[in-house]
Amino acid sequence: MKNAAAIFKLSYGMYIISSIDGDKKNAQFANTAFQITAEPAVIAVSINKQNYTHELIEASKKVGISVLTEDATFEFIGKYGFRCGRDFDKLADAAVIEGSTGVPIVTDYACAYIEGEVIQSADLGTHTVFFVKVKDADVLSDGTPMSYDYYHNVIKGKAPKSAPTYHED
Amino acid sequence: MKNAAAIFKLSYGMYIISSIDGDKKNAQFANTAFQITAEPAVIAVSINKQNYTHELIEASKKVGISVLTEDATFEFIGKYGFRCGRDFDKLADAAVIEGSTGVPIVTDYACAYIEGEVIQSADLGTHTVFFVKVKDADVLSDGTPMSYDYYHNVIKGKAPKSAPTYHED
């Protein structure tokens, strides 16, 4: 390959993906949520198979997507990105609303949310791409959605080097 | 639905997707290209089934992805977004290189490209999501990748109202 760094030029947003299965619920950070079709509105979400949220989505088909804004902190994102919900209740001290589908939706640092149900999925080895038919959605604020590029260049730059989740990359 | 405008808060990049089948070749604008897995590197690309590029990708499995930069003009993007390659050779006056897979890659206003072959696809009604295993990639410049938000708020704002492709939305 001439220069694999080309792959890092693709653009992404910053999202919290949530799900629920009975009394089990969880939420995790993800950067891949994209609208695929307009009629009906379907969003693709890619989730690592090892994640607890993946297990809940597979079981219930329910998915919540919170769109993070540029004011989200490194610590907040780290909680959803680096800690596993199997042994830590990430939602305990979060601002959460219950969506129409029953899925918990994290509203901290979120300007919008989308919720829906999986109508189809694609197995890509380490990850599953879930195709989520939108059931409900709302705008929560006029905050600017955070891009992954902004997170990498601005938010990580502000992170204390002593933070347990600090990464040099 | 409480407010469907929530869906527009998702983030996207700006890409030219190209393909070739024998002596037929084409390229089109798309905003949905995102990495799904790292091992192996696989990129998902969503293409409308009515597009000529869709026909070529289905036939050859070859896909080129050019990452557009913020200096791309409204006219340039419009050529790939609003005109159909079945009756107009979009590549005739474009800067194009031939990738390792034989696919034509548009390098105008591009800071990077990725090329590969479809290993799997998902039928989502109006669109097909192609999962492209990366075969080669390169960085072409240090230009800033254009976000769809930048296109909508900055590039469209600069477009002459008399442009044939001008849209009020």
Would you give an account of this structure?
The structure is a homodimer of 169-residue chains. Chain A is of the alpha+beta class and 169 residues long. Chain A has a single domain, classed as Electron Transport, Fmn-binding Protein, Chain A (Pnp Oxidase, Chain A, Roll). Helix content of chain A is 17%, strand content 40%. Chain A has a 7-stranded antiparallel sheet. In chain A, strands 6-7 form a two-stranded antiparallel sheet. The longest helix of chain A is centred in the last third of the chain and has 11 residues, at 148-158. Chain A starts with 14 loop residues before the first strand and ends in an 11-residue tail after the last helix. Residues 164-169 of chain A have low confidence and may be disordered. At the A-B interface, strand 3, strand 4, strand 8 and strand 9 of A face strand 3, strand 4, strand 8 and strand 9 of B.
Record keyword descriptors for this entry:
169 residues, alpha+beta, two-stranded antiparallel ribbon, 17% helix, 7-stranded antiparallel beta sheet
Biggest interface goes to: A-B, 50 and 50 residues
Are there runs of chain A of 5+ residues with pLDDT below 50, and where?
Answer: 164-169
CATH-defined superfamily of chain A:
Electron Transport, Fmn-binding Protein, Chain A
Class from secondary-structure proportions of chain A: alpha+beta
CATH class of chain A: Mainly Beta
